[in-house]
Structure formats: structure tokens, C-alpha cells
Amino acid sequence: DLSRSVVNISVEAGAAEQTIVQQQEGDDAQPPIPPQLQKQQPQTPYRSLGSGFIINEEGYILTNNHVIDNSDTIIVRLLDDKTEYSAQLIGKDPKTDIALIKIEPKGKLSVAYLGDSDKVEVGEWVIAIGNQFQLGQTVTAGIVSAKSRKLPYQASGPYDSFIQTDASINPGSSGGPLFNTRGQVIGINTAIFSPGRQQFGSPGFNIGIGFSIPINLVKGLVQQLKEKGKVTRGVLGVLIQPVDSDVAEALGLPSADGALVADVLKTSPAGKAGFQRRDVIVKFNGHPVVDHDDLPLMVATTPIGSKVDIEVLRGKEKLTMSAVIEELKDAPVEKPKDKEKSDAIGVVVEKLPDEIAQGLALQNAQGVFVKNVDADSPAEKAGIQRGDIVLEFGGTKITSVEDFEKCVAALKKGKPVLLLVQKKEGTRFLTLKLK
């Protein structure tokens, strides 16, 4: 019986944390209390509900991090067991939204068996079990609608690769299992796309678009959570961006595949291995990088200290670089610099002011300073903003306003050109095309 391996989770938090916890995805919270009525409400602990499932007979339970986050007390209830078990938090990983908790069982537990989410096919029937709308355990069915989904409508993480399903997943079901027809767990139900959540403080409702974390992603993290209470990941040290058709044409690439390197941390594995801006990573450790979103998860799951071969395209040349993967620290070590590059028509540029060069610690000041960008101009459409510094234009290093003007004059309509721009946050390539 699959339902016996699924548990209900109640979380209690102090009144001071009530507003924060109420906003969490998956809570069975009521709409926020209007400010004018708040003084009349007693300061009682906030209580929310979620789900989880037992993964071994020792009492270990998997759930979502957002179900137990900010909690003072975690209470677990089993099906047909009125006992309230106090659970211990073993470890959590906010980046993938998973958490591992543990109870001390009084008897033998029903365990959920983990399947292989890589073998899941679109159109395959699935079953979701969870605690919906405080009604108690509920079973819903549907199909796999899509795989490898990101969530563009919210703060999507670098390791997101969700299974999308139309099996009903409602508030309170977060952390529950998604089963295949063989009774194996293939995902952890974690989020829904809900237009109702944007109105009147509602916690939202299901419209047939739910998301589950693939269980194969979780399998590799459980042991780390058991042993260390957290997850360590590998880091390469490059800032990447997508390769679209314009970027592919500008770089002379055979296809719009791979991850374009916009910046490299000098002291990172990539910096030590000799990576450069404009490199396009097409294969990592023997696995093709079709989309730039594929790379972060590949790097993150590589064992620390491993030496990996990385295939890159540099101009017309194909190179194989070797890098030793290092540990990603909690501080934003992996983020090189981030942002965009500039264009010609529709901008006013000037020599780089000395105070700006000093503020950016540019010893050999290069580039031109963007004073103004016309609205709806090719420059604005390319992503150039006032205050940017144009470093390269179509592969040519810009050292003066004259260099910039020559590059502008040489532009051909309809032919995309890559610009490298430094912003306050860092550098990035932009694609400029004159129509």
C-alpha cells in the first residue's frame, strides 16, 4: 500500500515568524490578516501542513525544505496512526528545496521505493499522494506533461529540472511523492503554477500544472544530508549564457548548442585551466552540453577533486580543456561577474573617466563609457545601458572613441555582432543586429 509510506507533516513556528512562513509555497495558510485587524489577533504559534515519505525503516523521511524551513517544531503523523512523532531535522538543501528529517518509530514502517526518474516518459501515468487542503491524505492521478522544466515565473534555481504533471498537487501536498505505475517514487511534489496565488493573498490552487523534483537528483544528495546535514557541490568558475541563433551566427558556430562563456574567475578551476571569454562549452566530462542550463547541474554533481575533460569551441578550433573541480562555497564564489554588452547606433560614448576606471580597479583602462542610450534603439534592444563600458566590438578591443566609431561604421545590416560590455555587476556578451 503506497499510502502507508506517505506522512503528514505539521510545522509550528513562533508568532514572530508567522508572516514569513505564511508566504511559503505549499503551506495551508489562510490569506494574510489585514493590518487594521492584526492587533486583535492572539499571538499564537503559526501552524502549517505539508507531506513527506519514508525512505527506510530507520525512520528517515524526505520532504521539501520550504515545508520545514523556519520551524521550531516538526510533527509527523503516519496513516492510521494517531501518534504524533516529533521529527529531528537531519539536513536540508535550499538550492534543490529538499530536506531530510527523522522520527523514532514504534513499529515497522512502510517504505517508499525509489525509482529511476531518467526513464520517465512524457505521457506516462503517475500518482501523487499528499495532504491536500487539510483534508488528510489524498491520492490524485495524471500524466507526465513534460520533463526538465525550469520555472521562469519565480526565482528559478540553477539546478532546477522539474517533472511537470497534471496530477493535482495542492497546498499541503508539497514534499509528497510522485509515483509511477510500478509503485516507485520518481519525484517529490514541490510547486504549482497557480494564478490564484497572485490574488487576495490566496495560497493558490491547482490548474493542472504541477512540478516535481526528479528523484534521481535527490538520490545523490540524501547521503550527504545524512552525514553532513548539507550538500557540497562542485564549481567550475565560469559565467555562462545561452547560445541562440544570433550568437551562433556571430561566432560562426555550426549550431546553437552549448554554453557561451561570458566571464572566468581567474583563481577558479576554469581560470587555471585556461578558459577564455567567447569559449563555447559543448561537452563536459563526456556528456554533451546542448543547452547552457545543462552545465550547472553537471558541474555541481561532479565529485570534488575530480579531473574532468571539457570540450570547447574557440573560434574555428575545437579544444579539450582539463579542469580539477573544486568545492562551491556558500558565499557567492562561483559567480564571476554578471551582465551585458553594448552597441553602436543609438548610443553616445566618451573616453573612460579616470574616476570610473579607478573605482573598477582597471589599471590599464580600456573601453569607452556609455553616456546615453536612445529609447528603442538597436543598442537598447541589445541590452546596452547608460553607464556601461564597451570593451570589445565584434572581436575588436576598444581602446578609444575612435575605435568604437570605426566598428560602428563597419556594421552590416542584418549581420549580428557580439559586443563585450562591463557593467557595475561585471561583464557579459550582447548580440547587436542592425535591421
Polypeptide structure, described:
Helices cover 14% and strands 35% of the residues. With 435 residues, the protein is of the alpha+beta class. The strands form five sheets. The chain has a seven-stranded antiparallel sheet. The termini are far apart.
Task: Reconstruct the topology from this structure.
Layout lengths: L5 E8 L4 H5 L23 E9 L5 E4 L1 H4 L4 E5 L7 E2 L1 E6 L4 E5 L10 E2 L10 E7 L5 E13 L12 E4 L11 E4 L3 E9 L17 E5 H14 L4 E3 L2 E5 L2 H7 L7 E6 L4 H5 L6 E5 L2 E2 L5 H7 L6 E8 L2 E8 L1 E3 L18 E5 L2 H6 L8 E6 L4 H5 L6 E5 L2 E2 L3 H9 L7 E6 L4 E6 L3
Assembly of the depicted chains: single chain
**Uncertain spans:** 15-44, 196-203, 331-344
SS element count, helices: 9
Overall average residue pLDDT: 80
Strand arrangement across the biggest beta sheet: 5-4-1-2-3-7-6
